[in-house]
C-alpha cells in the first residue's frame, strides 16, 4: 500500500527541465501571430495577463497591459468600493464613443460648471436646452470668461458641429480635423445628445492598435474575487469589468465548486477559475460552467506553498495535464506563476497554455503599485505574495491560511524585484523572445505552437550549459538580468 505509491510515481517537469526542439521552419519571427484567448469570449492580441496581486495590478497596470494587447486583473486586497473605482477608472480611461455624456444647460453657472469639471475630470460639455443640443462649452471658453458670475449661455460656442449617431470613426475623425475641434457630439433625429467623440480618444486609439478593447472601444479589464464573494463579482460586472477571475489557492474544493455554479448563474461576463494543477480539477471546474482555467499551485516567485504545505505540481506538467483535460471543451488555460524569462512563456504555451499570467516580471515596472526603493545603488520595487504576512494583514484572509484573529500560516514572502522600466519595454522584450521561439519551432500562431511544439528533457548539466557560462558578464541585456538567482 505504501510501496505502491512510488512504483508508478510520475515525474513532474518545470520550465528548467525542458527545452523546445528546433524544427524545420518557413516562418520568420516577424511574421508570427501571437493572438490568443484568455477565456471563452475574451480574445487578446498579446498572450499576457497581469496577476491580481497588490504589488502588481491596479489601474495604471491594467491600462498599460490592455493598451499593449493583454489584459490586467485588478487585485481584491481592498474594499469592493475601492476595487470598483479602479475598474471604472480603467473603463473610462479611453473610449471611442462616450455614451453617458455629461451635459449642462445654458443657465448653469460657470462656478458650477468648473466644479463638475473638477469632480468628474472632464474638459467640456455639450449644452442642452430641453434635451436639444444648443451649444458646446470647453475649458478654453471658460479660460476667457474671467471670474465674474456668468452662466453657460454667455460663453458657449453656439454654432456647434454635431454628427449623426451612426457615424463611423473615420468620418468623425475627418469632421474633427476639418473643423479643428476637439469634441463632436452625436445626436439622434430629434437633435438629442446620444454620444460624444473626442479627438483625444481617436488619437489614443490609433496609438495603440493592439489594445484589448470592448465593443464600445473601452479597454478591457478583469477583476479578482474570492470564490464565495458573488456580491463582489456582481458589483464588478455592474461597474464594467469584462472578466471575473476567481482567486483561491485551491479551487478543487467541494465548497468552491458549489459556489462557482452559483456564481456562473449570477453573472453574465466570463468567469475564470483557479488555481488548479491537475486534470481532475480541470474536469470538475469545467463542469461548473467556467470559461477559463488558471493553472499553478506553488510555481510563483514569491510562493512558499510547496515548502510550507508540501503540495504542488511542477508547472510544465501542471499546464499540460490541465490543457489536455480542457482541450475537448475548448476552455482556455492561463499558466500562472514561475515565468522568469521569455523562453518560459514559449515553453508554457507549447505545453498547452493559451496565455500566461505574470507577477514578478511586471512588479518591477513603472506602472505597478509597488514602492520604489534603492538597494546598493540599484533601483527596485516592492513585491510580495498574496499569502505573505504583510498581504494577509492588510486584507485577504481567505486565499491562504488565516487561522484566528491574528494567527497566520503564511504561504508567501515579501521582497523586492529589480526596476524594469515601463510595461511597454518589458512586453516588447518578452514578445520578441516569444516570436523568436515560435520562429525556431516553425509555429505561425500560438495554436500552432501549442499543437506542434516538441520538448526535450534536459539534465542539470544541460541547464548549466543553457545559461551564459565561463564569462563575467559586464553588460546586462534588458531580457536577461544577472540579479536572477
Ligand atoms: P510569479 O512567478 O509571476 O507568480 O511572481 C505570480 C503568481 O504567484 C501566485 N501567488 C502566490 N502563491 N503564495 C503562493 O503560493 C503566495 O503568497 C502567492 N501570491 C501570489 C499567484 O498565482 C500569482 O499570479
From TrEMBL:
Binding-site residues for NAD(+), renumbered to this chain: 247-249, 296-298
Cofactor: K(+)
Key word Chloroplast present: no
Pathway this chain belongs to: Purine metabolism; XMP biosynthesis via de novo pathway; XMP from IMP: step 1/1
Domain CBS: residue ranges: 97-155, 156-212
One of the GO biological process terms: GMP biosynthetic process
Binding site for K(+): 298, 300, 303, 465-467
EC number: 1.1.1.205
Binding sites annotated in the UniProt record for IMP: 301, 336-338, 359-360, 383-387, 411
Record keywords: CBS domain, GMP biosynthesis, Metal-binding, NAD, Oxidoreductase, Potassium, Purine biosynthesis, Repeat
Catalytic reaction annotation: IMP + NAD(+) + H2O = XMP + NADH + H(+)
Signal peptide: none
Activity regulation as described: Mycophenolic acid (MPA) is a non-competitive inhibitor that prevents formation of the closed enzyme conformation by binding to the same site as the amobile flap. In contrast, mizoribine monophosphate (MZP) is a competitive inhibitor that induces the closed conformation. MPA is a potent inhibitor of mammalian IMPDHs but a poor inhibitor of the bacterial enzymes. MZP is a more potent inhibitor of bacterial IMPDH.
Gene3D superfamilies: Aldolase class I (3.20.20.70)
NAD found in the keyword field: yes
Biological function: Catalyzes the conversion of inosine 5'-phosphate (IMP) to xanthosine 5'-phosphate (XMP), the first committed and rate-limiting step in the de novo synthesis of guanine nucleotides, and therefore plays an important role in the regulation of cell growth.
Record-stated family: Belongs to the IMPDH/GMPR family.
Quaternary organization: Homotetramer.
NCBIfam families membership: IMP_dehydrog
Name this polypeptide is given: Inosine-5'-monophosphate dehydrogenase
Amino acid at each position: 500500500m505504501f510501496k505502491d505509491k512510488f512504483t508508478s510515481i510520475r515525474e513532474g517537469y518545470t520550465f528548467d527541465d525542458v527545452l523546445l526542439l528546433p524544427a524545420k521552419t518557413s516562418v520568420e519571427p516577424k511574421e508570427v501571430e501571437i493572438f490568443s484567448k484568455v477565456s471563452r469570449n475574451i480574445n487578446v492580441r498579446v498572450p499576457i495577463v497581469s496577476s491580481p496581486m497588490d504589488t502588481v495590478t491596479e489601474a495604471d497596470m491594467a491600462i498599460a497591459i490592455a493598451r499593449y494587447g493583454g489584459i490586467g486583473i485588478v487585485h481584491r486586497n481592498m474594499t469592493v468600493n475601492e476595487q470598483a473605482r479602479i475598474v471604472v477608472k480603467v473603463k473610462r480611461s479611453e473610449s471611442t464613443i462616450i455614451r453617458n455624456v455629461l451635459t449642462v444647460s445654458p443657465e448653469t453657472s460657470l462656478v458650477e460648471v468648473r466644479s463638475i469639471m473638477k469632480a468628474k475630470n472632464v474638459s467640456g460639455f455639450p449644452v442642452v436646452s430641453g434635451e436639444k443640443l444648443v451649444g458646446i462649452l470647453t475649458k478654453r471658453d471658460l479660460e476667457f470668461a474671467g471670474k465674474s458670475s456668468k452662466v453657460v449661455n454667455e460663453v458657449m460656442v453656439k454654432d456647434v458641429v454635431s454628427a449623426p449617431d451612426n457615424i463611423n470613426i473615420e468620418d468623425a475623425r475627418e469632421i474633427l480635423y476639418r473643423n479643428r475641434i476637439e469634441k463632436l457630439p452625436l445626436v439622434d433625429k430629434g437633435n438629442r445628445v446620444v454620444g460624444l467623440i473626442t479627438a483625444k480618444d481617436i488619437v489614443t486609439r490609433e496609438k495603440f492598435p493592439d489594445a484589448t478593447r470592448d465593443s464600445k472601444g473601452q479597454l478591457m479589464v478583469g477583476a479578482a474575487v474570492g470564490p464565495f464573494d458573488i456580491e463582489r463579482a456582481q458589483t464588478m460586472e455592474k461597474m464594467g469589468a469584462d472578466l471575473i477571475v476567481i482567486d483561491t489557492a485551491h479551487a478543487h474544493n467541494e465548497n468552491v465548486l458549489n459556489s462557482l455554479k452559483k456564481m456562473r448563474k449570477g453573472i453574465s461576463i466570463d468567469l475564470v477559475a483557479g488555481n488548479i494543477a491537475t486534470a481532475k480539477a480541470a474536469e470538475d471546474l469545467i463542469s461548473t460552467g467556467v470559461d477559463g482555467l488558471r493553472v499553478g499551485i506553488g510555481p510563483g516567485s514569491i510562493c512558499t506553498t510547496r515548502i510550507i504545505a508540501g503540495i504542488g505540481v511542477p508547472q510544465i506538467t501542471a499546464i499540460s495535464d490541465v490543457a489536455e483535460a480542457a482541450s475537448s471543451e475548448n476552455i482556455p488555460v492561463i499558466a500562472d506563476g514561475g515565468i522568469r524569462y521569455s523562453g518560459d512563456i514559449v515553453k508554457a504555451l507549447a505545453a498547452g497554455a493559451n496565455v500566461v499570467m505574470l507577477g514578478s516580471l511586471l512588479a518591477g515596472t513603472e506602472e505597478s503599485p509597488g514602492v520604489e526603493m534603492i538597494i546598493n545603488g540599484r533601483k527596485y520595487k516592492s513585491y510580495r505574495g498574496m499569502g505573505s504576512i504583510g498581504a494577509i494583514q492588510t486584507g485577504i484572509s481567505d486565499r491562504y491560511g488565516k487561522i484566528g484573529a491574528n494567527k497566520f500560516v503564511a504561504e508567501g514572502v515579501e521582497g523586492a524585484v529589480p526596476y524594469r522600466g515601463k510595461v511597454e519595454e518589458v512586453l516588447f522584450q518578452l514578445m520578441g523572445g516569444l516570436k523568436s521561439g515560435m520562429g525556431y519551432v516553425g509555429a505561425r500562431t500560438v495554436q500552432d505552437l501549442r499543437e506542434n511544439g516538441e520538448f526535450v528533457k534536459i539534465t542539470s548539466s544541460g541547464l548549466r550549459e543553457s545559461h551564459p557560462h565561463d564569462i563575467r558578464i559586464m553588460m546586462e541585456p534588458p531580457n536577461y538580468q544577472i540579479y536572477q538567482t
